[in-house]
Amino acid sequence: MSPTPVPSGRIRAVDTHDIRFPTSRELDGSDAMNPDPDYSAAYVVLRTESEDGGDGPEGYGYTFTIGRGNEVQVAAIHALRHHLVGRSLDEVCANPGTLYRDLVGDSQLRWLGPEKGVMHMAIGAVVNAAWDLAAKRAGQPLWRLLAEADPAWLVEQIDFRYLTDALTPAEALEILRRGRQGAAERTARLLRRGYPAYTTSPGWLGYGDDKLTRLAAQAVADGFRQIKLKVGADLEDDVRRCRVARAVIGPDIRMAIDANQRWDVAEAIRWTKALAEFDPYWIEEPTSPDDVLGHAAIREAVAPVKVATGEHVHNRVVFKQMLQAGALDIVQIDAARVGGVNENLAILLLAARFGVPVCPHAGGVGLCELVQHLSMFDYVAVSGSTENRAIEYVDHLHEHFLEPVVVREGHYTAPTAPGFSAAMRPESIARYSFPDGAFWTADRDAQKGRAA
Amino acid sequence: MSPTPVPSGRIRAVDTHDIRFPTSRELDGSDAMNPDPDYSAAYVVLRTESEDGGDGPEGYGYTFTIGRGNEVQVAAIHALRHHLVGRSLDEVCANPGTLYRDLVGDSQLRWLGPEKGVMHMAIGAVVNAAWDLAAKRAGQPLWRLLAEADPAWLVEQIDFRYLTDALTPAEALEILRRGRQGAAERTARLLRRGYPAYTTSPGWLGYGDDKLTRLAAQAVADGFRQIKLKVGADLEDDVRRCRVARAVIGPDIRMAIDANQRWDVAEAIRWTKALAEFDPYWIEEPTSPDDVLGHAAIREAVAPVKVATGEHVHNRVVFKQMLQAGALDIVQIDAARVGGVNENLAILLLAARFGVPVCPHAGGVGLCELVQHLSMFDYVAVSGSTENRAIEYVDHLHEHFLEPVVVREGHYTAPTAPGFSAAMRPESIARYSFPDGAFWTADRDAQKGRAA
Questions:
Q1: Nearest Cα residue in chain B from A120
Q2: Would B321 disulfide with which of A125, B292, B316, B411, CB 3.0-4.6 Å?
């Protein structure tokens, strides 16, 4: 196929960066649980050296956080470096699953989860950086590497531990083999039309009605067929905002609502029913992301409003149960919450096994850039459909990426550059590094000036 | 009542220590998932100053880890200091629940969980240190402060978010009010007889049959009525070891088995049934601690062998579901996994509401010292019973604590010193601090010597 742009070599170093953007000042990203997020990334660079001792390619990954604690996430990535430095690039690229298993299986680090929270997200960042290298080596965008991979190889990338009561390796293989039928046509269609997006940009809780109205109208004009509103802080406000939004977008555009874990089970049911007259398409994160049985109870009570969750579901074992319990109409994967591409492969296959559509969580810093690859793979090689599927889109912070997503007429354009679209601009890394980047230094000086 | 030994003042500083013990060299603590743990503590000291500017009392807490990554846990505790420094000691002691809610409710830090993993365990360490201060202020051991507290005040200490479909504040209050009946008699009995213990010391996976035989016989001679064996690495070995142990202890001593999350659901059922002839009392952690539905399926299949779990159950929401789903016969709280005393109050009350006995996980570093207080409170003021209840006991590392547990004739002696029994010896902190304490420095020198 294409020439190999990534030579043999080894991982030489693991660099980390604590990058924070001051998004809280505009209430971008504000919701009922997160009033003032400063969108941040714990960014990892796998630096490699080629066999002749020169600099090899770099692999990029990150965990998304919302500010404080980003340094803890950086420390967790740093704690993984003994698994990385010296590792053969050939091995990492040929079999990212080996690295993934080694990281998840480090028994001492596993105690800090297992497979959840800070340590697991750190593993996800590193694993995604390894896939970035693997896709560069293959000379393909990640979605295409995955979509054209041998099904048996893909199955080897998955850790089936704790899954086999719902999905066996043989069943996964069968799904992937079936997915090969018509894959070439779907790739062509994807390259031509892109993948559907919906937008959350109009609906942040901190925005006034005027801004909501303006942005909702703009979303429809831009070709989006679904918007999303944050709800859950105040029911009267929610009724007003849903009415405003529905009046602007009309009856044919879908309107999802998102409570960001704000409610207990009974309250979720009551509140969602109170908003049902505005025909919400789904209620997202109605309660704790840990509450499988709670989601199942809510789903039963609020139908035909659908139930969606996943951005905080911490691993494949919880997704498995959500599906077993019939708790979800929509699976919302997140590219940087679980253990990277490998675990998301498992989750996509679980969703396919249960026949539940996947509509990824995105936004934040660089989550759109990553997760588009997973949905495009899902379309070409797993579910075979974009019906009732869309990737979240938020128009923040893309300017900091070297290969930002391109959304046109409500669709993500399929990336064609080799890799995982994860590289941030060096000048953004320098300016927003915390606490010593130029932005934060100037910010502190300005605060001192105001105080003086 | 007693004079107030803790004057008014403020939290002045939050000190952290990365303390690691080289336990892996003796295979102490080895099990099917954790072959070589180095028992460690991310230790926090809340330093206070009294109103006159002098040194006030110190509050101690810690997260238990098994080695690598302990520095990440320390970083997470450090990330909480802005909630602590300057806070009034009066407020912390009068209402630890306010601090707990502020920590769990920090929306930016919450993103790193929510309420799970590294960040949540850090909150638990700090919250427990606050309770240590509160108990010192009250001049009472923590168990007694809790057991004699006003039920309405205890209810205020609990975060009922996500619990109200299983336990409301009114129901919790009713349980605690009922618990007052006969409490004085139970306190007297507890002070006289102590609280039942069981021992895991004989059963580590890395021990040979001779050591198992000797330690199991010793356990019976020491008055323990239950031992525990690690299983799950190799079925033939497990059959042999269970046979050896049962032969030593006879039919009347209970023998629990513990797989430390090793199995998938079907394998757990098959393996447990294969060991049923040795009459195991419970199978502990048969599969992922996240797998509520899996535990329920296993429990249904392996009865009359009981199912126990909890040391890695990350918060009250998962315990709630374990109980709602009928997944557990035994609730195993851990003093340092969840969000501290406050969240464990919720879990004890959930267990009482569902009528399931609590047998805490302990061992590690200082887990016995902490959790004894919670079981003793449970006995005096919640469940009112020690029947089918016992606290795990492991005879490691107690010498590093200023007020180590005292286990006699198979019972924990009730602590009488004010506080939470959490203070480590200064000389232990100095010697085992990682990487620069005297032990680790000498260890590196010795390794260099061997290498030279």
A1: B117
A2: B292
Contact A146, A377 (CB under 8 A): yes
pLDDT digits (tens, 9 = 90+) for A226-237: 999 999 999 999
Which string of b and e fits B298-327 if b means at least 16 CB within 10 Å? Answer: bbebbeebbbbbbbbbbbbbbbbbbbbbeb
Report pLDDT digits (tens) over B358-384: 999 999 999 999 999 999 999 999 999
Is the bond into A114 cis (omega within 30 degrees of 0)? yes
ipTM of the complex: 0.96
| Residue B361 appears among annotated catalytic residues | yes
Tens-binned pLDDT, residue by residue, of chain A (452 aa) = 344 445 579 999 999 999 999 988 877 777 877 788 999 999 999 999 988 889 999 999 999 999 999 999 999 999 999 999 999 999 999 999 999 999 999 999 999 999 999 999 999 999 999 999 999 999 999 999 999 999 999 999 999 999 999 999 999 999 999 999 999 999 999 999 999 999 998 988 888 999 999 999 999 999 999 999 999 999 999 999 999 999 999 999 999 999 999 999 999 999 999 999 999 999 999 999 999 999 999 999 999 999 999 999 999 999 999 999 999 999 999 999 999 999 999 999 999 999 999 999 999 999 999 999 999 999 999 999 999 999 999 999 999 999 999 999 999 999 999 999 999 999 999 999 999 999 999 999 998 888 77
Cα separation, A345 vs A172, in Å, equals 10
Considering its fold, how many domains does chain B have in total? 2
Answer whether A292 sits within 8 Å of B292, measured CB to CB.
yes
Q: How far apart are CA B94 and CA B96, in angstroms?
A: 7
Cβ–Cβ below 8 Å for B65 and A119 = no
Q: Residue A86 belongs to a domain with what CATH number? A: 3.30.390.10
Q: Tell me how close the Cα of B88 comes to any Cα of chain A, in angstroms.
A: 23
Question: Which residues on B lie below 8 Å from A73 (Cβ)?
Answer: 112
Residue pointed to by tokens 């009066």: B90
Residues A315 and A353 grouped into a single domain: yes
CA B192 to chain centre: 24
Q: Same structural domain for residues A290 and A385? A: yes
**Closest alpha carbon to B391 in B418, B419, B421:** B421
Residues B239 and B322 in one domain: yes
Chain B residue closest in CA terms to A65: B111
Q: B169 lies in a domain?
A: no
Q: Are residues A252 and A339 in the same domain?
A: yes
Query: Is A298 found in the same domain as A422?
Result: yes
Which one is catalytic: B120, B136, B230, B314?
B230
* Active-site hit among B17, B228, B361, B411: B361
Nearest to B162 among A68, A288, A312 (CB): A288
Q: Do B114 and A289 touch (CB under 8 A)?
A: yes
Catalytic site residue B396? no
Chain A positions touching B117 (Cβ under 8 A) are 112-113, 116-120, 314
Catalytic residue, candidates A17, A120, A320, A361: A361
CA distance B439 to chain A (A): 20
Residues of A with Cβ-Cβ distance to B72 under 8 angstroms:
72, 75-76, 79, 112, 118-119
- Check CB contact under 8 Å for B107 and A76: no
Q: Which of A116, A136, A228, A230 is catalytic?
A: A230
Do A95 and A231 fall within a single domain?
Answer: no
A321 lies in the same domain as A203: yes
Contact B413, B194 (CB under 8 A): yes
Domain of residue A255, CATH code: 3.20.20.120
Burial class (CB in 10 A: 0-12, 13-18, 19+), A221: exposed
pTM score, two decimals?
Answer: 0.97
Write down which residue in A157, A191, A221 finishes a domain.
A157
Instruction: Provide the 10 A C-beta neighbour count for residue A423.
Output: 21
Residues of A within 8 A of B114 (CB-CB) are: 261, 288-289, 312
Q: How far apart are CA A48 and CA A58, in angstroms?
A: 6
